[in-house]
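Box S2. Input/output pair 1.
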Amino acid sequence: MITRAGKPPAATGGLETAGVEVTEPAGAGRGKAGRPGGTGRRPDQLPGGRHGLLPSFVAANQRERILSAVAQATAELGYAEMSVEAIITRAGVSRRTLYEHFKNKEDAFLAAYDAAVRAVVQQVRRAYLQQTTAQARLRAGLGAFLQFLASDPELARMCIVEVLAAGPRAIARRNETMRMFAEIIEDNIHELVPSCQRPELTAETLVGGIHEAVFSRILDDRTGELPGLADDLLTAVLMLDVDRQDLSPGR
C-alpha cells in the first residue's frame, strides 16, 4: 500500500514502549511533502529522538514514506532523472534508511509500482464483485480503475507512463498487470459477445486500446478526464458483436 503525502499510515493501537531512537537527516521533511524550498516536517514524518514506537512501526512508516516519495519524484522528474537524493528528500529519510529498505532506486520503484497495482486491483475487484451481470461488472470495474488513476495523478503517471522507462523488470510487471486485466475481460466476453471466436485475443486487444486511451490523457496532464471515459470505453467493448464472416474480403 502507498500512503500519499499528508496522509500518515494509521497507527496500530496498543503500542508498547520500546525506546526507539529515530534519526532523520538534517533538513529532512523540507517543504510540502518533504520537498526542498519550504519549512516544516512531513505530516507523516515521525518525531526524532527517543520515543515509545515499536521498531516495526517505525520501519513501516519509513517504507510508506519512501514509496510515496518514489511516486512523487517519478511523476515530477521522470524515472530516468529520478535519483536516490530526490527520493530521500521527499520522503524525509536518510540515505542509510532508504538502503535499509531497498537496494537502489529501481528496487524502490518496483516496490512502489507493486503496491499501487495491489491497491487498484483491490478497488477494481471490490466494485466488480458487487455486480451480477457481465456488462455491469465490466462497467463497475472499469469505472473503479479510471477513478483510482484520476484520484492520484502522480501515481497514475508512475504506473502508466514512467513504468515504460524503468527497465525490463518494470516492463515485465506492467505486462503481467495488463494480462491480469485482459483475463477479467476474457471471463466475461462469452456472456457479452456469444459469437466471439477468439476471446483471448479480443480481450488483449481491448486492454491495449483502453491502456492507450488512458496513457495519452495522463501524458497530456488530463488525468481528471479519465472517469468520464468509462461509458464510451464500455460501449467499444459492446460493439464487438460482429460476425467474422461479415469482415471477409468481398463482402
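Box S3. Input/output pair 2.
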Amino acid sequence: MTNSWQDIKNADLVIVMGGNAAEAHPCGFKWVIEAKIENKAKLIVVDPRFTRTASVADYYAPIRPGTDIAFLSGVMRWLLENDKIQHQYVRSYTNASLIVKEGFAFEDGLFSGYNEEKHTYDKSSWDYELDEQGFAKIDETWQHPRCVINLLKKHLDRYTPEMVSRICGTPQDKFLHICEMIGSTSSPERAMTSLFALGWTQHSVGAQNVRSMAMVQLLLGNIGVAGGGMNALRGHSNIQGLTDVGLLSSAMPGYMTMPKDSEPTFDKYMETRQFKPLRPGQMSYWQNYRKFFVSFQKAIYGNAATAENSWAYDWLPKLDVPDYDILRAFEMMDKGQMNGYICQGFNPMQAFPDRGKIRRSLAKLKYLVVVDPLDTETANFWQDFGPQNPSDPASIQTEVFQLPCTCFAEEDGSLVSSARWLQWHWKASDAPGEAKTDIFIIAGLYQRMKAMYAKEGGAFPDPLLNLTWNYADPDDPHPSEMAKEMNGRALADLKDATGNVILKAGQQLDGFAQLRDDGTTMSGCWIFSGSWTEKGNQMARRDATDPREAGIAPNWAWAWPANRRILYNRASADPQGKPWAPHKPVIKWNGASWVGFDVPDYGPTVKPEDSMGPFIMNQEGVGKLFARNGMAEGPFPEHYEPFESPSDNVLHPKVKSNPAARVFPSDREHFGKGEDFPYVGTTYRLTEHFHYWTKHAKINSILQPEEFVEIGEALAKEKKIEQGGWVRVWSKRGQVICKAYVTKRIKPMMVDGKPTHVIGCPIHWGFTGVARKGYGANTLTPFVGDANTNTPEFKAFLLNIEPTSRPPAADLAHGPRKAGRSA
C-alpha cells in the first residue's frame, strides 16, 4: 500500500476493482465503512460478480474477467478528453512533459523492439530524448508530438466507451457514470483511493492492471495524498514481508536485484545500478544502491566480505534466466531437471496452477521436504485419494519428509501488514508435539550442511562456510537477533561530516541514511533500518495516538521506510509547498523545513524553489505515465485477452494475448478454445475460510463444508442445473465434480455482441483436513504467468459445465483410498 488502512477513511471516493475487500479483508474494510459514514465517501465496485463488497457499494458495474486494462484505458481517455485531470500535478509531478526519442512505436498490438522468437522486447526505443548532459528533454507546452502526454493520448484513442463496452461487457451508461465519479476527484480538495488484490495480480497482464490504475491516479493527482494512493490488500499476514526480504527468486532484501550471469564482477553489476538522475537537480535515491548492497553483504558474510574480494560478490548466485519462479521450478521438475524440493510454508498442490502437472512433477523428485504446521496436499500428493487425487503410490519413488513447524502464535516475531507496518508479536502458546520453529529447522539444516562441507569438501563451499552466524544459540537463533540484523548496526565508529562520532561500533543504526559503502555498516534489509534502534524495538510500539485523527498514528508499530505512512507524500503539497487539500494536510513547507503528521518522503530541508520532484525513487523524480524500461510488455498498458478467452482481441486480432507472458512450449497444447469451453472461469476466496488452512478447523468446515461453483440463473436454466445439484466442471486440464450454487450475483454480459457467462470457483477445498474432500480449483487453471511477476493466471480461464449425478460414497469419503507406502 502506498498509504495505510487507516488512511482510507480520508478518501472521498473508494474504488474496489481487482478485489473483494469486504469478503477477503473484512477487518480492514471497516475503514471503507468509516469513510462512507464520516466522510460521506462513495464506494464503486467493478467486478465480474456482485460481491459482498458490491452489496454495500454506492455504484456497481460488471466486467468480464481479464479486461481491466481496457476499462481503465477508457477511463484515462475520458479523463483527458473531458479535462478531468489535475493539471498542475500532472505537469509538475509526472513525466507527461518529457519527450520520448524517435523510434518508439506501437502497431498492431506490439511495441517497437519485439523479438517474436524469444517473446521479449529490446526496450532501447522506450526511452527519452536526452540533451548533451544526459538529461531528458522536456516540453512544458505539451506541443511536441512525442512528449509523453501526446503519445498517451494517441495510445488511448481506441478505448472509446463503445469499445470498452464491447471488450469488457460493461454497459456504456454504467461505464460513463463511473468515469464521472472518478473524474470528480481531479479537484485538489478531493481524493480517490484504489483498493485491489489478487483479482488484478493473478492475470497474464497482472502488473499492467495495477499500473493502469496507478496512471489514472497520477492523472487525478491522487498519489501521495491523504485518502488517495494505490493500496494492495495483501492476502496473508506476512506476504508483504516475504517480498520485502527478497524471497522471490530474482530479488534480494529491500528490493535489490540478484546478479545475472552477464554480471560476473561487482563493478559490472553496479554499472546498471547507478540510477543517474534524468532531470537537473533531481534526487535519485537508488543512487545509494552501493551502500545498501555492501551493508547487506556485511550482514551475510561479516568479516569475510571485504573491499579486496568485492564484498564477497563472487559468493552470490548468478541468474542464468530471468527468474527461478514457481512456474519454472515445476517445469524443470516435470522435465526431470530437479532432484529435491524444500517446500516451506506453502502448498503447491493447492496453490499452483494445473494441479495435474504439479502432481506429475512432484512424482519425478528424489525427495520432497515439507515444512508446515498442517498435513498438506503437497505432503500427501503420492497417496491415492480417489478422483480428487488419483495416484499409484507404488510407482512413485519420491521420498517425502514432513517437518512440523509452529504457527505464528507459537513464536515471537514480526509481521509486515499491507500498510508496510512491521508489527511485533509475542508467543502466546507452546507448539504441540514435535513442532519446531522455522528458524530452528533452517538453522539445523545449515549446521548439518556446514559440517558436511567442512568434513568432505565440495566444489564451491565458500558461500556456506563463510556465512556469519553469531547468535547466542547457533542451533536456535532468537527472532529478536534476526530483527536487529535486519535493522543493521555500526561495525566501526561512524562520524558525521564534521568528524563528530554519531554512532559507536556495535550500536544499532537509526536508519538507512547512516549506511555506508566502505564496510563500516551492516544491514540485512535496508528498508527495515530504523525498526530496532538503540531506543529499542520500534515494531513493538502500541501508542495509537493519531494527531487530529489524520489516519497516521505514527507511534503504532513502525512502517518502512523510515516510519513513513504515506509514500511520495511530498506530492501532497503543491510546487510551492502548500497542501493541495488544506483540510487534510500530510506535510507542508514552513519556510525552513518540511513538517507535518508524517515523515517527509523528501529531503527535509530541500526548498520548494529547488524544483526537485517528489518521486525520489525514480530517476526522473516524477511519476511515470510512460514506463521507460520497467515493464516487460510495454511502456503503456495495452489490452490483451487472457490466454484462454472466448473472445477475439478486437483491437489487434493477430496479437491476442500478452506477447511477453510466461508460457512454456509444452503448456500451450493444454490451453482450451472457446468452441470447446465456452464459459469464463474465475477463482475467488470466501470469508469463512483462509486459503487452504482452515479446512483443517472444524468450525470453518461447518460454515463452508464442501466445494461448489457459483453460476448465474441464466446459465443454470440453459444447462438445466438445479440449485445444489451436482455438476461436472472441466477445462482442458482436468475436471471438478461438485455442487452448483445458483445465484443472482452473476449475470451474462454482452461481449462483442455475444452473451458471456462467468463461473465462479472458490479455492479452499482439497483432500486433507476435516472439510469434505474437494478437487481444488487449480485443477482447472492454466500454467501461464504474468510477464513481469510470473504470477499465474487464476482469474480468467475457460470452462465447460454440465449436470451430473452424485458421486459414489467412496469418492466422497475421507482419507486415502488405500494404504500407500510411508515415507
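Caption for Box S3: The chain has a mean pLDDT of 96. The chain is about 20% helix and 15% strand.
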